[in-house]
Amino acid sequence: MSDEVTLFIDGVPVTVSASSTVCAALLEARAIALRRSVTGEPRGPLCGMGVCFECRVTIDGQPHRRSCQILCREGMDVRTDV
Amino acid sequence: MSVPTYDVVIVGAGIVGAACAAECAAEGLRVLVVEAEMVGGGATAAGMGHIVVMDDSEAQFELTLYSQRLWEELAEELPPSVEYDRCGTIWVAATEDEMRQAERKGKFYAERGVAVELLDARELREAEPRLRRDLWGGLRVPGDGVIYPPAAAHFLLSKARAHRTELIVGRAVIEATLGGEVRLQDGSNISSGIVINCAGSSSPKLTPQIKVQKRKGHLVITDRYAGFVRHQLVELGYLESAHAASSDSVAFNVQPRRTGQLLIGSSRQYGAEDARVDQGVLARMLNRAFAFMPGLADLSAIRVWTGFRAATPDNLPLIGPYAEGARLYLATGHEGLGITTSLGTAKLIVAQIMGRTPPISSEPFLPIRFMQESAHV
User: Fold this and answer.
1) Is the Cβ–Cβ distance between B318 and B200 less than 8 Å?
2) Where along chain A do its domains lie?
3) Keywords in UniProt for this one (chain A) (predicted)?
4) Quick check: B213 and B308 in contact, CB under 8 A?
């Protein structure tokens, strides 16, 4: 098993440690805002433990996934909303 | 301090009480609304907010159709917070038998002047691609819609208040007497020409003899998934669930909200007084929904809650004087249709108070129907 995986963040390939959460990969790869609130405000990860729901992104076509609760997989397609 | 007197005291500021207040106030009556907890709380806040024409009986059909048209007339006045959306209903047929049922239902509606559209399996897939693919078809009722009920209750009450209706919130009524008096928990009394008990599932607490039972329901709301569902979707087996007189029942019922969120229902339980979520019933309800729409299982639910419908033995509401000539009126027992029929209920009540011919027959809804029944036993 390889120690690194490559996933796609808004179409851009990013290589991270295989044990990274999607949230960690996102923070490494780009600015902290990942999505927009109902009223259009930028939102990004806060609690890092699955409680605050602020770090949601679309993963493999599935919206509202909590990036801090999901580990990176090879070829994963991650979409932010900002 | 002198006790003010009113033409009408309305107990309960749910959507039915608010609609009655708006109609009474528009007639120039001096109205007081007394609400124990909050405006637009109770079943008004717990329900889905489906504006739906239902054909359980001719009387129910007439009241729901009349009310649905009143919502349409009101549409232009409704503030955006009410989120009125004429998304239509699709009654979904899972079996050949249910497809025959959809055809009969469609004929019934069409004969009574309601636009309907029968969908075959392919048309149903096109209309709602997320539904399971092997369904038989369905019946679309395009005139049906969705509102956000608490906002609607606030809007109706604000209409009433524009005509000098008074509102008391946070004081509980413990009795609504036949003589038109309201007793509050704090010991004070308010006298009035007429009292209308609009307290939903709490209405028997104020008027103990009335035949209203609590019927518990669960709902789930998801995160925002715009376009996932386009119509209010209800399985044709829904009426069967609504009829199950004794046992707990669940039925597939999904509603798209303006926000992109989905409401997932429904459950019905008698004898369940506890407001806590019943995990067994919730699991059955969701599994029913997943069976019709497997993709729902991958969505994120953000909240689950329960509420209590006000159910009557014949599935029709109680609208009108408690007894011939009584100063106590009832507007309760709307079960799962109170949001739809609130407007029609208010028109019937006002016609009765003012001694006018009602816009539709009020006979099937008169509370006296149960008094006569018990008198003959």
Assistant:
1) no
2) 4-79
3) Oxidoreductase
4) no
| Strand, helix or coil for residue A77 | strand
Residue B195: give its domain's CATH number. 3.50.50.60
Same domain flag for B221 and B304: yes
Instruction: Look up the pTM and report it.
Output: 0.91
> How far apart (Å, rounded) are the C-alpha atoms in residues A48 and A21?
10
Report the CATH number that the domain containing residue B302 is assigned in CATH.
3.30.9.10
On chain A, the residues whose CB falls within 8 A of the CB of B259 are 38
| B319, B359: one domain | yes
| Cβ-Cβ contacts under 8 Å, B298 against chain A | 62
- A19/B contact by beta carbon, under 8 A: no
Instruction: Judge whether B30 and B144 are in contact, CB under 8 Å.
Output: no
Q: How far is residue A40's CA from residue B133's CA, in Å, rounded to a whole number? A: 36
Question: Do residues B203 and B217 share a domain?
Answer: no
Beta-carbon pairs below 8 A across chains A and B: 14
Length of chain A as a residue count: 82
Q: How far is B179 from B193, CA to CA, in rounded Å? A: 9
The number of folded domains in chain B is: 3
Kindly report, residue by residue over B253-262, the tens digit of the pLDDT.
999 999 999 9
Based on C-alpha coordinates, what's the Rg of chain A?
12
